[in-house]
Amino acid sequence: MKVSELNPPELDYWVAKAENIEGLAEDGKTGHLVRWLKSTKRFELYSPSIDWSQGGPIIERERIYTYPLRLEDGWWSTIEAKIISMEGPTPLIAAMRAYVASKYGEDVD
Fold first, then answer.
1. Among 47, 61, 65, 82, which is least packed, fewest CB within 10 Å?
2. Does residue 22 lie in a domain region?
3. Number of structural domains, the chain?
């Protein structure tokens, strides 16, 4: 599948894989990824392509630059050090697509 076509929750799966996050499960009702937090003894949605508190640190750490597209709706993100760029309907989706592409290339299995 093309990274440029990934959307949540599939995009979140690939971000988790790139981040080496283990212990995630799929919520049977929504299809989103969840993880058990021992500290709070509850499940938490894992969705860095929707949640700024999860995606923001990745953007900052990886120095992903995100810009609005000028003539159409959507966003463009780039990781200049790796010459990767991706588009998406939101800044987080565009940035997480760029992050996944930087780790696995433009196609994933």
1. 61
2. yes
3. 1
Q: Residue 87: phi, psi to the nearest 5?
A: -115, 165
- Rounded CA-CA distance 78/28 in Å is 33
DSSP code, position 44 = E
What distance in Å separates the CA atoms of residue 2 and residue 6, rounded to the nearest whole number?
Answer: 7
| pLDDT tens-place string over residues 62-84 | 999 999 998 778 999 999 888 89
Instruction: Compute the distance between CA of residue 96 and CA of residue 41 in angstroms, rounded to an integer.
Output: 28
Query: How many alpha carbons lie under 13 Å from residue 3 in its C-beta half-sphere?
Result: 24
Q: How far apart are CA 70 and CA 81, in angstroms?
A: 23
Residue 35 in tokens: 């993880």
Asked if residue 109 belongs to a domain, the reply is no
CATH of the domain at 55: 3.30.2120.10
How far apart CA 92 and CA 50 sit, in angstroms, is 6
Q: Please indicate whether residue 59 or residue 80 has the higher confidence score (pLDDT).
A: 59
